[in-house]
Design goal:
alpha+beta, Ubiquitin-like (UB roll), single chain, five-stranded mixed sheet, 79 residues
Length: 79
Amino acid sequence: MLMSIKVRYFASLKESVGRSEDNLVFTGLSTVIDVWNRANPGRSLPANILAAVNMNYVELDNKVDDGDEVAFFPPVTGG
């Protein structure tokens, strides 16, 4: 089955990957970490990166479905 996933990058992560988003169309993807690996071949996911699917925080092994939006961002700190 062909899947379409929108991938968004925020803050310093956007700068390090060199773009703010990707639109992926593929088959055989199933988890958040699979999305990262497909969008960023050869680049390891930096430590402590947070992920969200459809604006809900998730673990990296969370399942993704056709039409989902997956976001990656560094931890947010406040004072």
